[in-house]
Design brief:
The protein is mainly β and 506 residues long. The chain folds into 3 domains: 51 residues, no CATH class; 182 residues, Immunoglobulin-like; 185 residues, Immunoglobulin-like (Sandwich), CATH 2.60.40. Helices cover 5% and strands 49% of the residues. The chain has 2 helices and 29 strands. The strands form 6 sheets. Strands 16, 17, 18, 19, 20, 22, 23, 25 and 26 form a 9-stranded mixed β-sheet that branches. The chain has a 7-stranded mixed β-sheet with strand order 5-4-8-2-1-11-14, with no helix packed on it. Strand 16 and strand 17 form a beta hairpin.
Length: 506
């Protein structure tokens, strides 16, 4: 095989040029042995200082020199971390990178609200700082941030409390911060809201020690809800440009905790029809303190959502927590205060009634964390069905309300009623959810009696038959009648006091 020799050549050392050196770039047409053109060349290299000096001599009105930066400082980046633990407060720590563009001592103002600052170091030394303003309530900060998020691309958020940091020395500086934010408890949820210094794409890293923990994030231009699957799982997101944030989390072990301030009052209507069950459930949620941007409802098994409506409903999402158990999360357009009303339109197929009674349970919608849930359920039936009550536990029969509850009049198309119309059956009142109301439906059997009156006229050339049939129909309408007539009839005519269509078949 051929051999190759590879020789490694070390690079030449850098060439040091004097300050007044003038360089002419190499050109094959202008070598060192050839003289320069009569007019010389317009491509030469000089030092920056010599170029500025020559330019200022040639253009005294457009002098070059050191340009001042448009701003004295800017945030070059930031990152914060938090661990979702604790019962009273949330610890948040991180850093901000600040670029200083002036040699003069400068006070940098940073937004910081919703908590207590526990540590602040600048370039490894204790930072000199002062409070410039007292921020508003953290709930107002998070409320404004949520409104900005819902409006689309988030503009600069309103500052909360302002902290002044003294910097000296042009260049990069790092500010390390640590603060504690008070937690609000609402049922099983822990809620923290505040404002942090934020540069574009400020990182926020959340550590969740417990598995199966629900986490909700407000005022982020990213995914807003998570559920952890393993221990010490991390959630990486970014703060909004204004730095306002809202964090809510609830471990699965705290799901059973009740919010003592949340009550629910429902008005529901159940339509029992031939091929389906329609449920229109309107619930009014009341709470004395705080704000809520979403509610969690529990749906009855086998029911499908047709619509979720309300003047403040932004959207909804469902999750099957267990076989036959569906969790509905309703997200609001703006945070609700004191009360909110939501209307659900649900349906399920069947049961298709047969000759025997077909039992089924009246559905109920539960409200997560509610300390009290009461209301009224009105049952309607198709005129073609006979509905009976088999068992009632946790409900009391009451008089039918004057204005039927949850008829869907305010929400056109929420209930698809039978063209034959629906009839009221019974009304029930329940003091709590869940309750047990077992119903059964069977088709209404039609009762038909016939009275036939016939005259047979016999002539020399033809026979003539005239017959009148009187039908007595009870319980349900009759739309089709079959009559047996002699096969040798001709010129058959049929008439009735109502519009009809008829045909003669063999």
């Amino acid at each position: 095989a051929d051999r190759f020799v590879v020789q490694i050549v070390e690079p030449e050392p850098p060439v040091t040029l004097p300050e007044d050196a003038v360089l002419r770039p190499f050109s094959p047409d202008q070598t060192g042995t050839r003289p320069l053109p009569p007019r010389g060349t317009d491509r030469i290299l000089v030092s920056q200082a010599r170029y500025i000096e020559l330019w200022n001599r040639a253009h005294p009105d457009e002098r070059l020199g050191a340009m001042e930066a448009p701003v004295p400082y800017a945030l070059a980046g930031a990152a914060f971390e938090a661990e979702l633990t604790g019962e009273d407060d949330l610890a948040v720590w991180g850093h901000c990178d600040i670029e200083l563009f002036t040699e003069h001592p400068t006070e940098v103002t940073l937004p910081l609200a919703g908590g207590v600052l526990t540590r602040a170091t600048l370039d490894g030394q204790t930072a000199r700082l002062r409070t410039l303003a007292v921020g508003p309530d953290p709930a107002d900060i998070a409320n404004q941030a949520r409104l900005q998020q819902q409006a689309g691309p988030m503009p600069e958020a309103r500052s909360g409390g302002l902290v002044g940091i003294y910097l000296t020395g042009i260049g990069s500086h790092r500010l390390d911060l640590a603060m504690r934010i008070h937690l609000e408890r609402r049922g099983g949820w822990r809620i923290a809201a505040g404002q942090l210094p934020a540069a574009p794409a400020t990182a926020l890293l959340l550590r969740v020690p417990r598995p199966r923990t629900e986490v909700r994030l407000g005022a982020v231009a990213d995914r807003s809800s998570y559920e952890t699957e393993a221990e010490n799982q991390t959630i990486a997101t970014a703060l909004a440009p204004g730095g306002a944030f809202r964090i809510e989390w609830r471990p699965r072990v705290a799901e059973g905790e009740i919010d003592q301030a949340l009550t629910a009052e429902s008005n529901a209507r159940l339509d029992v029809q031939e091929e389906r069950l329609d449920l229109n459930w309107s619930v009014r949620l009341a709470f004395a303190r705080g704000e809520r941007e979403r509610f969690v409802l529990h749906l009855p098994p086998r029911y499908v959502i047709r619509s979720v409506t309300g003047t403040n409903v932004r959207g909804w999402q469902i999750e099957e927590t267990a076989p036959g158990q569906t969790r509905l999360e309703v997200i609001l357009l703006r945070p609700a205060r004191e009360s909110e009303e939501i209307t659900l339109s649900l349906w399920r197929p069947g049961p298709v009634p047969g000759p025997e009674l077909e039992p089924f349970d009246a559905p109920a919608v539960g409200v997560d964390e509610a300390v009290l849930h009461r209301g009224t359920l009105v049952v309607y039936r198709s005129p073609l069905l006979d509905v009976r009550s088999l068992m009632a536990e946790g409900v009391t029969r009451v008089d039918m309300p004057r204005e039927p509850a949850a008829t869907g009049a305010g929400t056109p198309g929420s209930l698809q009623e039978s063209p034959l119309g629906l009839r009221t059956y019974q009304a029930y009142q329940f003091p709590a959810v869940p309750f047990r109301l077992r119903l059964a439906a069977t088709p209404v059997q039609s009762r038909l009696s016939v009275n036939a009156q016939t005259i047979l006229r016999i002539g020399q050339r033809q026979r003539r038959l005239e017959s009148r049939t009187l039908l007595a129909i009870q319980h349900r309408p009759c739309y089709r009648v079959q009559l047996a007539v002699p096969t040798d009839l001709r010129d058959v005519k049929v008439s009735a006091p109502v519009d009809l269509e008829w045909a003669l078949t063999e």
